[in-house]
Design a protein that fits this description.
By secondary structure, this protein is α+β, with helices and mostly antiparallel strands. The protein is built from 9 helices and 8 strands. It is globular. The relative contact order is 0.16. The model has no long low-confidence stretch (mean pLDDT 94).
Length: 190
C-alpha cells in the first residue's frame, strides 16, 4: 500500500509491467520523520533521494548571518534531495526539514544504480524527472527576476495553495526572497 502513490507517479512518466513495479519497490525503503526534524543538514552528505508519501518538507540554506533562504518545498507526490551532494558525494549546503509529521520512500545511490541495471526504463524515468526539475528551476529563476514580490506571492499562493496553507509567514517570505515585514504589507493588500 505504501508504494501505490510511487507507482502511480512513475506510471505517469514511463509504463512499467507489474513485475517491474514489484522489482522497483524493493529498492525504496519507507521512512517516517517527525515535525521539525531534519532529513538532511548542511555539512552532511546526502545519501538518499526521497519520494514524499505524506507531509511537507522545506529545503533551505543558512547564510553567514543565520538567515534562512528557502529554495523549495516538497509535499505529497513530490521528490526531494540535494542533487549536488547526492551525485558528487560532497557535504551538503542544504538543510531539509519536515514541516509536519511526514512519510517518505527513500532510495540510496547504490540502490538507484542497481535499479537502473534491473529495470532499464528506470534510467529513462529519472532522466525525464531530472529534465522536468531543471525546467521548474528555470521557470522559478525567471519569475524571481521578472515578477514583483507581490506577483511572486500571488503566483505561489495560487499555484501551490496546499503548501502555502502549511507555512508560517517567515517560511513564505524566505521562499519569496523578501522580508517578513514586506510580506505582511503584501498580505494586507489582499
Amino acid at each position: 500500500m505504501k508504494y501505490d502513490l510511487l507507482i502511480a507517479h512513475i506510471n505517469k512518466i514511463v509504463r512499467l509491467s507489474k513485475a517491474e513495479e514489484e522489482e522497483l519497490c524493493r529498492y525504496f525503503q519507507p521512512m517516517s520523520i517527525a515535525k521539525k526534524a531534519y532529513l538532511l543538514q548542511q555539512g552532511e552528505i546526502c545519501k538518499f533521494e526521497g519520494f514524499v508519501l505524506d507531509g511537507c518538507f522545506r529545503t533551505f540554506t543558512l547564510d553567514k548571518k543565520g538567515n534562512e533562504n528557502t529554495l523549495f518545498f516538497a509535499t505529497k507526490d513530490w521528490w526531494l534531495m540535494d542533487i549536488d551532494s547526492f551525485m558528487n558525494n560532497k557535504p551538503s549546503e542544504l538543510n531539509i526539514q519536515a514541516l509536519e509529521d511526514s512519510e517518505l520512500l527513500i532510495i540510496s545511490q547504490t540502490d538507484k544504480e542497481k535499479l537502473y541495471e534491473a529495470i532499464p526504463s528506470a534510467e529513462k524515468l529519472f532522466r525525464i524527472m531530472f529534465q522536468k526539475s531543471v525546467v521548474a528551476w528555470q521557470r522559478r529563476l525567471v519569475r524571481n527576476q521578472s515578477l514583483t514580490a507581490k506577483e511572486r506571492y500571488q503566483h505561489f499562493t495560487s499555484k501551490y495553495p496546499e503548501i502555502a496553507s502549511k507555512l508560517t509567514d517567515r517560511q513564505t517570505s524566505s521562499y519569496l526572497g523578501i522580508t517578513h515585514e514586506f510580506l505582511s504589507k503584501i498580505k494586507k493588500e489582499f
